[in-house]
């Protein structure tokens, strides 16, 4: 059977890109675009990233676990809020964590799960090695090298995740491909009409993820040290499967020592330490099976490391349990349950977030990041089911959602659109005028219930809600809103006071932005 016959009935690469983008991985494509998207400045990017993370309770919890891992946080400064992670670790480091989580989340069960987990294991291991190499080469943005390495084989794991679903009638062809233990571009092109590396490049172009990855896959910039860092890192990850003491690995370590101007024994120690860090971090991501693939290489009896490094590896791997307990303690400390999305009040977390806000205000306040920190405090610290910041429109006649967090926040945000400065006035007009916290309910004994507009009545239902004005000095700019309607929990005095305190802190930050 000729190559042309083998390709008959196969979907071309454009079909795969379109189908993966629109049908199979739209959530990943959307999330990855936001995470990897370049912005004019890191401050606006940071606030958008914080918003993206807080919209996903599962991502929030796992990101905080990763933020407390040795790889991303070697100083082990406790991090229990998203905003603190961004402030302490930096926007680019948090972006790398989010991309890692998004990739893990894109995996689905299937016949080819082993291909997918192998590719993800390789890519994450390579990404950790690449960031270390880039850092030692004084790269201006090691996190960009991390992301390019992480995504280098995304065509492969995307293909093997959905191949049986998209190409239902070509099981034998897929079986033939799956038996290949090493990448075989000529066979891929012969059977599919394109290589899986071509698919990686096409997805990267379509989703606008990484210019560095584009350079790496195009092979046009082989002299670029950043491209070399990505390539070397993937060689390390792939070669480690042959054994850390194999001739191939020894040759590779020698090459790397020349590139980094480091002694061979130190390079040996570095790459093995990075492999262990990769496995540890994957466990914090909630991917123990993928982590085990790296750990198995480290502890393989046939390719044992020196007694010194073997002891180090054993200690590190045995610490997985304690690190897992630390991560669980972190999650418990934030009183956040990713399964029901209803956080309990946490005074300690409130103080931490308020302290972070004060610190940020006293530096160079970024209003968007401050607002995301306030909403995180209301949701995860005060324990509100959902919270909104609604902005006054330029015509001063409407109030509309700018940012939201919590249970069903997207639907809530779409509903939260109200008229203001009308006659007779409503509760929003009253809040904007009095500049103080108002507690709302539809109970007849609530003095404000007749001022609540119909749309807001539907939002509040049988629960209670709190609102307060956000203002720059004497100029109102919006409203903070929070409730516990989804969980049907009551609002107590502590909740009332904490909500007011966070809104006041927001207004202090806004005041700093007022022109002198």
UniProtKB/TrEMBL annotation:
<dbReference type="Pfam" id="PF08668">
    <property type="entry name" value="HDOD"/>
</dbReference>
<feature type="compositionally biased region" description="Low complexity">
    <location>
        <begin position="329"/>
        <end position="342"/>
    </location>
</feature>
<dbReference type="InterPro" id="IPR029016">
    <property type="entry name" value="GAF-like_dom_sf"/>
</dbReference>
<feature type="region of interest" description="Disordered">
    <location>
        <begin position="301"/>
        <end position="342"/>
    </location>
</feature>
<dbReference type="InterPro" id="IPR013976">
    <property type="entry name" value="HDOD"/>
</dbReference>
<protein>
    <submittedName>
        <fullName>Predicted signal transduction protein</fullName>
    </submittedName>
</protein>
<feature type="compositionally biased region" description="Polar residues">
    <location>
        <begin position="311"/>
        <end position="328"/>
    </location>
</feature>
<dbReference type="InterPro" id="IPR052340">
    <property type="entry name" value="RNase_Y/CdgJ"/>
</dbReference>
<feature type="domain" description="HDOD">
    <location>
        <begin position="25"/>
        <end position="223"/>
    </location>
</feature>
<feature type="compositionally biased region" description="Low complexity">
    <location>
        <begin position="301"/>
        <end position="310"/>
    </location>
</feature>
């Amino acid at each position: 059977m000729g190559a042309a016959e083998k390709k008959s009935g196969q979907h071309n690469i454009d079909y795969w890109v379109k189908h993966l983008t629109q049908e199979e991985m739209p959530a990943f494509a959307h999330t990855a675009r936001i995470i990897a998207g370049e912005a004019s400045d890191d401050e606006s990017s940071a606030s958008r990233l914080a918003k993206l993370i807080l919209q996903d309770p599962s991502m929030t919890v796992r990101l905080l676990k990763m933020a407390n891992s040795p790889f991303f946080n070697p100083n082990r400064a406790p991090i229990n809020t998203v905003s603190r992670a961004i402030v302490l670790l930096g926007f680019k480091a948090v972006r790398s964590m989010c991309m890692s989580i998004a990739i893990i989340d894109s995996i689905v069960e299937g016949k080819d799960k082993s291909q997918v987990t192998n590719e993800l294991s390789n890519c994450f291991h390579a990404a950790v090695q690449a960031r270390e190499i880039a850092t030692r080469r004084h790269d201006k943005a090691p996190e960009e090298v991390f992301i390019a390495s992480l995504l280098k084989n995304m065509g492969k794991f995307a293909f093997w995740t959905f191949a049986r679903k998209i190409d239902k009638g070509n099981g034998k062809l897929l079986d033939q491909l799956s038996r290949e233990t090493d990448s075989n571009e000529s066979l891929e092109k012969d059977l599919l009409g394109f290589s899986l590396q071509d698919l990686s490049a096409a997805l990267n172009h379509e989703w606008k993820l990484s210019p560095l990855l584009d350079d790496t896959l195009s092979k046009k910039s082989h002299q670029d040290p950043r491209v070399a860092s990505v390539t070397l890192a993937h060689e390390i990850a792939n070669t480690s499967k042959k054994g850390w003491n194999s001739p191939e690995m020894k040759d590779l370590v020698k090459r790397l020592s020349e590139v980094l101007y480091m002694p061979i024994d130190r390079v040996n120690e570095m790459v093995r330490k990075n492999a262990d860090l990769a496995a540890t971090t994957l466990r914090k991501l909630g991917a123990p099976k993928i982590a085990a693939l790296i750990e198995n290489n480290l502890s393989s009896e046939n390719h044992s490391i020196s007694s010194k490094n073997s002891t180090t590896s054993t200690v590190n791997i045995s610490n997985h349990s304690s690190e897992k307990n630390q991560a669980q303690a972190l999650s418990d400390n934030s009183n956040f349950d990713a399964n029901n999305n209803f956080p309990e009040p946490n005074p300690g977390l409130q103080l931490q977030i308020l302290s972070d806000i004060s610190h940020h205000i006293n530096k160079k306040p970024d209003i968007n990041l401050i607002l995301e920190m306030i909403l995180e405090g209301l949701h995860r610290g005060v324990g509100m089911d959902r919270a909104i910041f609604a902005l006054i429109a330029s015509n001063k006649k409407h109030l509309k959602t700018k940012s939201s967090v919590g249970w069903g926040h997207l639907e809530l945000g779409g509903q939260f659109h109200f008229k203001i400065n009308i006659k007779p006035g409503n509760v929003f007009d009253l809040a904007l005028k009095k500049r103080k916290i108002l507690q709302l309910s539809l109970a007849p004994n609530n003095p404000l219930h007749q001022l609540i507009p119909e749309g807001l009545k539907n939002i509040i239902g049988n629960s209670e809600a709190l609102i307060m004005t956000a203002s720059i000095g004497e100029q109102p700019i919006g409203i903070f809103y929070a409730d516990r309607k989804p969980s049907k929990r009551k609002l107590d005095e502590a909740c009332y006071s904490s909500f007011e305190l966070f809104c006041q802190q927001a207004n202090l930050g806004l005041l700093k932005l007022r022109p002198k």
